Amino acid sequence: MKKCILLLVGSLFILLGLFFAVVPGPSLIFFIVGLMCFSFYYPKARHYLALCQKALTKSCAFLDKKLAR
Question: What is the pLDDT of residue 48?
Answer without folding.
Answer: 92
